[in-house]
Amino acid sequence: MKSLISFPIPILLLYSIIINLAIAQSPDFGVYKCRNTANFTTATYKKNLETALGSLPGNVTNRGGFYHSTAGNNTGTPVNALAFCRADIGPEPCEACVNNSIPSLRRNCPNQKEAAAWYANCMVRYSDRNMIGVLDNWTFGEEFNLAMFPDVDEFNTALNNLTTRLRAEAAGGDSFRKVAVGNATFGADSLTIFAMMQCTPDLSREQCGECLSGTLTELRECCSGKVFGWVFYPSCFTRYSNELFYNDTAKLTSDITFKSRKKSNDSGTIYVVVAVVAVSVALIAIGVWFVLTKTRLKDSLSKNESTGFSTLVAKQKQTSTNHDTVGMDESVSVQSLQYDLKTIEVATNNFSGKNKIGRGGFGLVYKGVLANGQEVAVKRLSETSSQGVGEFINEAVLVAKLQHRNLVRLLGFCHESKEKILVYEYVPNKSLDYFLFDSINHGHLDWATRWKIIGGITRGLLYLHEDSRLRIIHRDLKASNILLDQNMNAKIADFGLARTFAADQTLGNTMKVAGTLGYMSPEYAMHGHFSVKSDVFSFGVMVLEIVSGRRNSSFYQDDIEDLLQFAWKLWTDGRALELLDPSVAETSYSEDDVIRCVIIGLLCVQEDANVRPSMASILNMLNNNSITLPEPQKPPFFLSKVSS
């Protein structure tokens, strides 16, 4: 298959600036890894953990951005913790990053003996075993976007040459700092890539080189040709971008102290402010353009829904060419996403029943293995599916634009003769409903896992509603459309019914209500009105299902006909904890977090869309225990009686 996406150069630059600034500046950005091989159950370990982590923020800036602490050596349950900051930032952002990451790490990994959190500026981790001088590769993470350089081969060659040089330079550092930065220019357009490689300074030269080699292997797997990539292990990371993301002070030698960099860090702040202003101006222009053209584009899609695929693609391309700016097709080269049917048939053993792994809203889903060994999920739309060409392109083109760790990644599609096929990344642990509502499998969902899943869905929806280039309304959020990866991280899937909004648009209307009863908001089910708040309603239903382990659509108890009313009754009676899944109630869990989730769920399913919280507010409620939550109003009663 060809490279996924080819951007016009001005759009590529704008998009990558937005992505890099979002990662560098967003306080919500964070990747958490909880090692589930062992959990702690004693108050002593918890106390030692809090002591070890609590000593990190005040000391890391006095140790060059790297600090290790130990607590509880005399108790038999010792805890080791360390903080590691990027070498190019000053002491204030380093301390702030470490300080902010610790509460989030503890919430995401509440009772694991080993865990790690990566933020844009720092990494914090802890373990019950020694970590100093140890090359750790028990886990890794990656971040990237789908924007592509025009010439992938030239980019890969340039990046390989650059990182080979930087790897040797970083590994050759001393016990104070092992870091290297640099850039390379390539191609006829003299494009530039910037890269940074850094190890924790406790590693030996050989260990650092081995760790960085591992990151480069992962970069080749995930990020070939992409304009931004970042792979991080517990002991090192490699990051590159087509935009300058590091301060020049990363070229410091080890005899210059960490605190001496404050002045140059200020210059980095000025750079960010200038970039933010530039992006803001560009986004305003984009918003104006979108308002002027969205009606024309909507008419075009509607008119062509029953026409051939090629005609619709041609019209989308023409729209993109005429305006040469961000629009419905600004980031997608449709041909670059195409698979041929023969490739798909070979990958799925000709759609063998043994390869079938599920059923989506418009067809069957198969597991496939491509010629290069990559596992994929193949969604084959049925010939009798109500999803037409317009809806098919909606999902293919829309999802290809989106890049977030809590969204299922679209790799491409196939459209030959009567076949309409979507090719996604393979997510091994099936869907949330497979675990949540199964009498046996729900035992795999302890409270820590459920809390992590709720947080993942929250971050994915926040990206769709506020942080992606267009505001995306999913319209069919439910447990079966939440997939779980090998680490039980939530990924939102199935965008066949999704709609896009302009930046200033808040409400849409449709005469054709589509979705799943039990999850639809009252304004959408009754009047066809949808907005981000209709997604919030669906999210609230899922939160109550995750807490209780019970499906809203099949709920019945005494004279109460749905889960929402049951949760409301328990909460108003002061018995919210009784909603908790009995299989979880018998294990370790946080009562405060359970009650918080019940209240958040009820806030989301209020009948008045205007009083439902935004996803940004919900994320804040989950991450900040000091926030006093408002009292929810009674949820609507009619949902179980809506006819299909």
UniProtKB/TrEMBL annotation:
Major location (coarse): membrane
One Pfam match: Stress-antifung
Superkingdom of origin organism: Eukaryota
Membrane association type: Single-pass membrane protein
Subcellular location: Membrane
Gene Ontology terms for molecular function: ATP binding; protein serine/threonine kinase activity
Keyword list, A-Z: ATP-binding, Glycoprotein, Kinase, Membrane, Nucleotide-binding, Receptor, Repeat, Serine/threonine-protein kinase, Signal, Transferase, Transmembrane, Transmembrane helix
InterPro entries: GNK2, GNK2_sf, Kinase-like_dom_sf, Prot_kinase_dom, Protein_kinase_ATP_BS, Ser-Thr/Tyr_kinase_cat_dom, Ser/Thr_kinase_AS
Matches recorded under PANTHER family: GNK2-LIKE DOMAIN-CONTAINING PROTEIN-RELATED, RECEPTOR-LIKE SERINE/THREONINE-PROTEIN KINASE SD1-8
Annotated protein name in UniProt: Uncharacterized protein
Taxonomic source organism: Deinandra increscens subsp. villosa
